[in-house]
């Protein structure tokens, strides 16, 4: 991977003008598509297949008068006045007639109608006019809504001073998240942190510009997609928030490594290429984890949530693409102008991060206990987590919608803001009108029912509805319990009157179903995310303990995030300080969104912090010293990245809507803080110290089964250091001081130097246990690690194992030798190898084997054979062939020569010498 990214970075640098123009074209194309195709966001929530959604769809056909969105006009008289006075009734009647005549209005229910019950408060001071529209909120025109407001204003003037007429309801619920100036402050803070960290204003602006380009491309295409699919407004703002944060961070990681390369004396082009190959690999890995986690939201099987995850994942993927292509192209215009200034030596001084890591690792067990206890205390409130969809109660205090909601709650009870609709099929009933009235009376006996506002069949006598007013608020646990109670007991009640197809629906019931479905999806999604993190981190670090520790740390961050957010937005602690006007529940998709985003960020910090520690461990072999050195090198950039994340997320809190963005931004802010500063920089060093050498071990069988993800580019460093070897580029097989080892780390052979041109035959001879079979595995790309250097067909091993395997064949372990050789001939391989050729090629197959080997050699392939001695394989050699004999001699008893990798100046590639694990690197 790193070698591909190295070439990508160099290509982007050299063709920087073309790359910049290409991204400019993408951005302009996105803007054009947005202006051409966009139909705007739609906040209608659907959960296909659910009971409430099916019933709502049925109502659209059989009872359209109650299936669309609605509005409520509240008439409140001053104390001592009656809303039932005749002048008020006349004014209300006139307003009802005006509104009923409007386009898109289905029905208007006067509070004084004989068909409406409970629309006048007990103290006779307040009344509710219910307006039912054709279609959902996004279908309504501005003219219709303005006309309703105008009629309400005229009603106010007719009633006179002292009375209040308020307009609200779901039709006027504009709890739509928007971007304000406050969010821009987060970008400014990020710029300040970048300037402080990079000590260069020009360099600090680059990550900001990269993030803005990525967000611009993402949002223009997301808005264009609204022309062909339903996309919620929350989706747009969430993708902006995530795209900004990761876009800045990813560019920071790469530009930081670029400046380090410049400081080491590399020219700008090489610095760009190496920074993309190293930090860019880590960025690609981190971005991939976020994308997978966000796309994984499909496990909930809720369309709007899947689209939300895909849009956010698209924003992250765009940020990665920008960082890997546009950023290196942009750096090409700056050259050495952002080279960091030489800093005064601080030899012998640890600095803040050095002191911190020594403090937390001095008593690692105490540190771990303190961290777990602190996180547990923060997580306790999460036991009271309650989820719901946003309703009028989440509107900003002082708005007409919120005032109307509060007035209805105060005068009629909170349940009037979220009535439930019971739908039954009455086609088989002989008296549907009387049956519906009796059904309403029966339903009124269920605990949690405050009132039955309406119970009637439709005009065709096919379906009937009962409007149930709960005693609790729409987002309360009591209302969710009532929905379940109605579904449990209602069908039996309906059977008494010959009714069937009993269902509970309405906006409130849909919200309950969405919340329940999301809650049930949390566990499988959590298993998906945790399992993914374990597998990916095993491939990154070649360890079992490190991934388990990383996953535990992620779970600690999630629990703390949920606990603090629940304490604020459900329990109400410090809510006023954050401007949270609405408390009592959290937006239903908050947990699953936060889990996905924090997963990617946690793995991001884990990789950048622990990979440096792993590299130091390879150099020193001292786990404690590796932790201290790696932490001091990685902690500054991780801290800056975390502060940037915090500044972006935190600035969405002050102006974010109380019910949607504010809690999500709070949860992400808390999660990032806990994960970066408490888990990664405190918990992680302590755990690694406690584990010692055990942190970097893994069972050999697992090591061979999994590929290796080289996030630090150690393999690339080795490839670059060996660019001039071998001197003759025509050599098909070349080794230098190559030594293979057994699973215990003992050397099996003396160092081997080999130089074979195309079309040569080599015979490896020696007794059992001399390493000849293992050498064959290594040269055909089937051995994860060895000492020394080796190239096959110009490809460096083991870094290019996968490519070498595709250009070689190996017959061993009882395989059909002639079949394998024929396959190699067909594929035109560069190397064909037969292990134990003297034993596996019998007399009946000798002629065919000789023929195939001859044809392979004629085609320019090298052939490797192993045998007890050169004469033992002579029967399969083509006529006139003069093989190269390679005697394999075991080293002196108990000798374990130090690993030799000539030219590996980076030193990071010596992991195989320090570890007992040979980690398969076939993925390269």
Automatic annotation (TrEMBL):
Keywords: Cell membrane, Membrane, Transmembrane, Transmembrane helix. It is a multi-pass membrane protein. Gene3D superfamilies: Multidrug efflux transporter AcrB transmembrane domain, P-loop containing nucleotide triphosphate hydrolases. Residues 887-924 are annotated as: Disordered. Residues 201-333, 554-690 form the SSD domain. The keyword Membrane applies. GO terms for cellular component: plasma membrane. Its main location: membrane. The chain crosses the membrane at residues 179-198, 205-225, 231-255, 276-299, 305-335, 356-380, 522-545, 552-570, 582-602, 634-653, 665-691. It is found in: Cell membrane. It comes from the Bacteria. Pfam families: MMPL. This is Membrane protein, MMPL family. It comes from Propionibacterium acidifaciens F0233.
């Amino acid at each position: 991977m790193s070698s591909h990214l190295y070439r990508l970075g160099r290509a982007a640098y050299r063709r920087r003008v073309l790359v910049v123009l290409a991204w400019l074209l993408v951005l302009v194309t996105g803007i054009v598509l947005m202006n051409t195709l966009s139909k705007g966001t739609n906040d209608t929530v659907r959960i296909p297949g659910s009971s409430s959604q099916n019933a709502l769809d049925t109502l659209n056909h059989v009872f359209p008068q109650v299936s669309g969105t609605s509005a409520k006009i509240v008439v409140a008289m001053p104390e001592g006045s009656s809303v039932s006075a005749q002048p008020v009734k006349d004014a209300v009647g006139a307003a009802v007639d005006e509104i009923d005549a409007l386009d898109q209005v289905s029905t208007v229910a006067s509070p004084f109608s004989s068909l409406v019950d409970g629309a006048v408060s007990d103290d006779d001071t307040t009344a509710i006019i219910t307006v039912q529209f054709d279609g959902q909120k996004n279908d309504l025109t501005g003219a219709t809504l303005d006309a309703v407001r105008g009629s309400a204003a005229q009603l106010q003037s007719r009633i006179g001073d002292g009375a209040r007429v308020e307009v609200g309801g779901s039709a006027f619920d504009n709890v739509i998240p928007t971007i304000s100036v406050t969010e821009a402050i987060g970008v400014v803070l990020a710029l300040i942190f970048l300037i402080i960290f990079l000590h260069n204003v020009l360099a600090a602006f680059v990550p900001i510009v990269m993030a803005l380009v990525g967000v611009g491309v993402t949002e223009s295409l997301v808005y264009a997609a609204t022309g062909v699919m339903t996309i919620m407004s929350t989706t747009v703002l969430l993708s902006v928030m995530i795209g900004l944060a990761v876009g800045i961070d990813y560019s920071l990681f790469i530009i930081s490594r670029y400046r380090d390369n410049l400081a080491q004396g590399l020219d700008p082009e090489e610095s760009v290429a190496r920074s993309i190959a190293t930090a860019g690999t880590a960025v690609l890995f981190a971005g991939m984890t976020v994308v997978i986690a966000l796309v994984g939201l499909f496990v909930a099987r809720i369309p709007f949530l899947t689209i939300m995850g895909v849009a956010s994942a698209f924003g992250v993927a765009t940020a990665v693409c920008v960082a890997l292509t546009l950023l290196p192209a942009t750096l090409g215009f700056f050259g050495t102008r952002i080279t960091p200034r030489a800093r005064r030596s601080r030899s012998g001084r640890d600095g803040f991060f050095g002191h911190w890591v020594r403090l937390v690792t001095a008593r690692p067990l105490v540190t771990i206990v303190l961290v777990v206890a602190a996180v547990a205390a923060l997580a306790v409130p999460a036991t009271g987590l309650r989820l719901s969809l946003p309703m009028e109660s989440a509107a900003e205090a002082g708005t007409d919608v919120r005032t109307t909601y509060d007035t209805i709650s105060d005068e009629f009870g909170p349940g009037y803001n979220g009535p439930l609709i019971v739908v039954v099929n009455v086609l088989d009933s002989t008296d549907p009108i009387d049956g519906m009235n009796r059904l309403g009376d029966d339903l009124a006996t269920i605990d949690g029912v405050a009132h039955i506002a309406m119970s009637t069949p439709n005009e065709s006598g096919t379906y009937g509805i009962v409007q149930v007013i709960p005693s609790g608020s729409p987002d309360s646990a009591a209302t969710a319990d009532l929905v379940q109670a109605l579904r449990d007991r209602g069908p039996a009640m309906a059977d008494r009157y010959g009714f069937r197809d009993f269902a509970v629906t309405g906006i409130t019931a849909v919200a309950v179903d969405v919340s329940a479905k999301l809650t049930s999806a949390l566990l499988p999604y959590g298993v998906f995310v945790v399992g993914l993190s374990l597998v990916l981190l095993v491939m990154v670090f070649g360890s079992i303990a490190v991934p388990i520790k990383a996953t535990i740390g992620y779970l600690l961050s999630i629990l703390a995030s949920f606990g603090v957010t629940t304490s604020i937005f459900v329990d109400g602690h410090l809510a006023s300080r954050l401007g949270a006007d609405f408390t009592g529940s959290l937006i239903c998709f908050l947990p699953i969104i936060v889990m996905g985003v924090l997963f990617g960020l946690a793995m991001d910090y884990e990789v950048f912090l622990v990979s440096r520690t792993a590299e130091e461990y390879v150099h020193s072999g001292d786990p404690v010293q590796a932790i201290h050195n790696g932490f001091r090198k990685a902690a500054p950039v991780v801290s800056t990245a975390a502060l940037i994340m915090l500044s972006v997320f935190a600035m969405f809190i002050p102006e974010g809507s109380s019910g949607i963005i504010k809690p999500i931004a709070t949860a992400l802010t808390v999660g990032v803080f806990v994960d970066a500063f408490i888990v990664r920089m405190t918990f992680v060093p302590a755990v690694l110290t406690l584990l010692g050498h055990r942190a970097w071990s893994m069972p050999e069988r697992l090591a061979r089964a999994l590929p290796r993800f080289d996030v630090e580019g150690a393999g690339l460093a080795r490839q670059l250091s060996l660019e001039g070897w071998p001197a003759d580029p025509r050599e098909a097989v070349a080794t230098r001081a190559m030594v293979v080892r057994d699973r215990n780390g003992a050397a099996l052979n003396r160092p081997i130097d080999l130089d074979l041109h195309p079309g040569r035959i080599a015979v490896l001879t020696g007794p059992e246990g001399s390493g000849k079979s293992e050498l064959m595995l290594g040269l055909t790309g089937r051995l994860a690690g060895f000492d020394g250097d080796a190239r096959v067909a110009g490809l460096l091993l083991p870094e290019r194992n996968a490519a070498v395997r595709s250009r070689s064949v190996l017959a061993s372990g009882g395989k059909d030798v002639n079949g394998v050789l024929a396959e190699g001939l067909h594929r035109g391989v560069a190397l064909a190898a037969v292990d134990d050729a003297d034993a596996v090629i019998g007399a009946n197959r000798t002629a065919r084997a000789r023929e195939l080997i001859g044809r392979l050699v004629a085609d320019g392939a090298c052939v490797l054979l192993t045998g007890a001695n050169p004469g033992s394989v002579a029967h399969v050699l083509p006529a006139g062939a003069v093989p190269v004999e390679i005697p394999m001699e075991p080293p002196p008893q108990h000798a374990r020569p130090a690993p030799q990798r000539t030219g590996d100046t980076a030193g990071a590639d010596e992991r195989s010498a320090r570890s007992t694990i040979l980690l398969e690197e076939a993925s390269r």
